[in-house]
Amino acid sequence: MKSFKHGTWMHRGLALRQYNKLRTLLKDARHDCVLFANEFQQHCYLPREKGEAMEKWQTRSIYNSAVWYYHHCGDRMPIVMVTEDEEAIQQYGSETEGVFVISFKNYLDNFWPDLKAAHELCDSILQSRRERESESQETHGKEYPEHLPLEVLEAGIKSGRYIQGILNVNKHRAQIEAFVRLQGASSKDSDLLSDILIHGTKARNRSIHGDVVVVELLPKNEWKGRTAALCENDSEDKASGESPSEPMPTGRVVGILQKNWRDYVVTFPSKEEVQSQGKNAQKILVTPWDYRIPKIRISTQQAEALQDFRVVVRIDSWETTSVYPNGHFVRVLGRIGDLEGEIATILVENSISVVPFSEAQMCEMPVNTPENPWKVSPKEERERKDLRNTHLVFSIDPKGCEDVDDTLSVRTLNNGNLELGVHIADVTHFVAPNSYIDIEARTRATTYYLADRRYDMLPSILSADLCSLLGGVDRYAVSVMWELDKTSYEIKKVWYGRTIIRSAYKLFYEAAQELLDGNFSIVDDIPEFKALEEQSRQAKLEELVWAIGKLTDIARHIRAKRDRCGALELEGVEVRVQLDDKKNIHDLIPKQPLEVHETVAECMILANHWVAKKIWESFPHQALLRQHPPPHQEFFSELRECAKAKGFFIDTRSNKTLADSLDSANDPSDPMVNKLLRSMATQAMSNALYFSTGSCAEEEFHHYGLALDKYTHFTSPIRRYSDIVVHRLLMAAISKDKKMEMKESLFSNKDLEELCRHINNRNRAAQHSQKQSTELFQCMYFKDRDPETEERCMADGVIYSIRTNGVLVFIPRFGIKGAAYLKNKDGLVISCGPEGSSEWKPGSLQRSQNKITSTTAGGQSVTFHLFDHVTVRISVQVLRCHSDTIRLEIISNKPYMTPNPELCHQSSLLLKSELVKEVTRSVEEAQLAQEVKGKVLQEEYQEFCQTKGRSLYTLLEEIRDLALLDVSDSYVM
Amino acid sequence: MAGLELLSDQGYRIDGRRAGELRKIQARMGVFAQADGSAYIEQGNTKALAVVYGPHEIRGSRSRALPDRALVNCQYSSATFSTGERKRRPHGDRKSCEMGLQLRQTFEAAILTQLHPRSQIDIYVQVLQADGGTYAACVNAATLAVMDAGIPMRDFVCACSAGFVDGTALSDLSHVEEAAGGPQLALALLPASGQIALLEMDSRLHEDHLEQVLEAAAQAARDVHTLLDRVVRQHVQEASILLGD
Prior knowledge:
A: alpha+beta; 21% strand; Exosome complex component RRP41 (chain B); rRNA processing (chain B); cytoplasm (chain B)
């Protein structure tokens, strides 16, 4: 049993932040912490004596409480009081038997000798604290001006003298450029439109990316411009030579309102670098993985041992006298370049914590084992509408999908009208509000999909079993059912409620499409049909085909209606849906777009829309909806310019005109043009976000991309927490309609707003981690190949943006976006020979609106236009401290011809899944090689013993089975 | 920055009370011999003294006399040393006028004034120490004093204040809680019938929450009634023992 005690006292001014941190820790039921208000307890309260110091009195009170608790437990349970106060340890240490007063270090040594990580962490904190103490005595010259006191800052913000905002460091020029995005009230009354530039680290004044800072504007003659040139991270002051663009508001940081320090992943310098740092070997400058974070000073003796590892550190302080912040070492993640280590890095950098579900959490889960199968309870059977015998319910999902959230049904009613049903897994039945599992799911907020693995929001017993609407088993569901007119498909009635369903078929998209197209040979691939006899099989098949056909028909109708309002189609079904979350071009790679995709998506959108309407009507101030604000017109200017270069006109005035003009902007000779234009349009748009209806006006609810006035997420409660909240709201709305007592209390507007912010935040982290892991795999894929010789390192690229010293290129085959330089570090420019091959020669570059010309000293010139196809060579730049990056090099201004044109046509893209598989395999092979080596040695030692009877073949097979699940094709809506 | 945390996550208020808990109430009746009725009450650190004269003939201009009922005259004052800041409070300043008026309204509703036509009842209340809930303390003290004077009333008048913090109603606010600036409500209740003698709130409070706060105040007033009832019974017992001797 663990029980932590704190006195209720607090040093308010001293550490409000610590206090709040402690409070949130305490609130979280998973930590098993209990707060005991000793001052309010009859036997624990001690009056303060005359002249007694506050601290003394508090220590005495806490000790007294500990003694009381010891006696309260019948003297049978020893109590430990942990303090760093030496005097208290002296005084009380041996006063009462059974109550120990010890320091934290001592506590760890005695009670948790096996917790190595905790010991290391404790050592590192102690050391850095000691360092700081000794340091504060010796004073150097000041590196930074002091921050202004809080009152001055607040007064300054009110009077308009200072501006408040969030510091955003430019990733590519982390040393020089940072921007402050205006925030809250200050943006309204100041006439500043753009962000404020913070130039140099001095002006940044110890603030770190993500901090809420207060900025003072510099006089106009000191304003600077941002650089438009492409720039590599390592060349720090290179940009100074370039002519910057027109000056923009520039300022300097005068204070920090809120520090957003988190855990950072860093790399220790290599041995040579340590030696060069020389004089104080105790303090080591480590380089964070994130470019935007400054180097951190760590004092540790383990530097050499940690050289080849990715390490987590925490920043403690940043004094005015120090160029870099001080921090301490927390834990080791893994080796540099190792797949697991790098994945762990990505997780930490996105603040994703994915510990396995705890025992307490799993205890809340229902059981479903072969001996003890889960059954529909009679109570639920009475309360729910039973659709098991009346409705033909089926699901359409990607092949191999485990977590089936949604099923569909359609049937003809007695009056001739149609009934369309969407049935969603009833997760809230199993996840009670504020249960351990609920709290955990809320913290995770979403299932994280990385390139090669996923981290579930709910334990697999729910996500893959009891909540998954698998075929042929009884499941609880939440259903929305519409009665539609038989001919016009107008919605006449809608019903929401809890149901019991039994999905008849678990189809995959391709099979459903084949059935829809009337190609019945696919039937053999559907397991549900296999067991049936010929007679009943035919009848069942006809029934199913009719349902799919009808469904498609209805979906077309609804879609057409939405199109008339201006729903955007940005690159196939997948991406139009993805547009909500994501602007990453990787995901613009369409998988064979099938009409069934669209049908299913449309039904889900319809369900989401109707649920949004329902919960908003019932709870106008505390419903969770999803908005997609209309984009700013100025962001479209690049899109318009690019389209003009190709002779298209894009009308961006409304979503309708944008959708229409994007449809018409199609170059028959090059399908990539349309794709890129659509991706640019996506880039220009803001993200869709969750929000609470109480926090903004009704006009702002609109979903721009889907052209709906209200929208929410309802259809995937297994992998999104927002859907769980919406389910609870819907259930509450239904019981409200029935005038029943509301069972559970809903989130208030304020709490819901806070929750929405958290979910949005986590979604962003999920996207970032997904993107970063994909990039990681791309790099690993190209890493071991020699770019000069290998065929696959050459690819066709399309230029989609032009900068002063290079172009941005998109490689459709691999889905890679990146920069290619036309001018290298030595100032040489690219030139292309008559047959297209390129070389570096002295010369100059000229950039205009949509082309860039490189002229060599010899007078030769070559021009690159937007949307030109070029051949690029892909190589990997291996970086020690950061993630590796892909480098692109233009080697010819002619499109790249694949030696095998047929292959090129058949699959012009190497699917992400393939890439992932290949990399995972090679990693495993490397591991295997090591293992085999170890084994051989072992066998040599045990010359006369028997081997363990495992041939290399079985070992290989086993490892192949372990191949990580490929989830890249489970669609994300 | 954020102000004081009025209600901790564990549900404790600053002085260690729970949301619906009252401060310690101590009261005594008959503290002055020369007055017709008197009482002294302590609610936590708030201390108030009430004195009642009457019913007697109308003093001053006779024209104020009411033909069908007694005139209730209330005066409120607070001692210079009653608050943290020492301050002279002359008679007839706005605050005490208002308080006097409120007390008068409260007691006109409670005293059976029609039994004493053309006469006057004087209630003087003085606050000796103000630590929040002065109105409530005054009403409670005055109730006891009126009873001590033997003036017939419909019922006890029990008063209590209530506030609203973080979605929870707090009853019997202390000075610190009042000073934090949240909504605050004062309620005087006739506990037997549940009728409200006076309800006052100056600040803004969302309509949805009113019922909750009102219920908290009413419950607190009923608790006050239990305590006052005990005090009265004890007093009567002591008095009868004295008489019996």
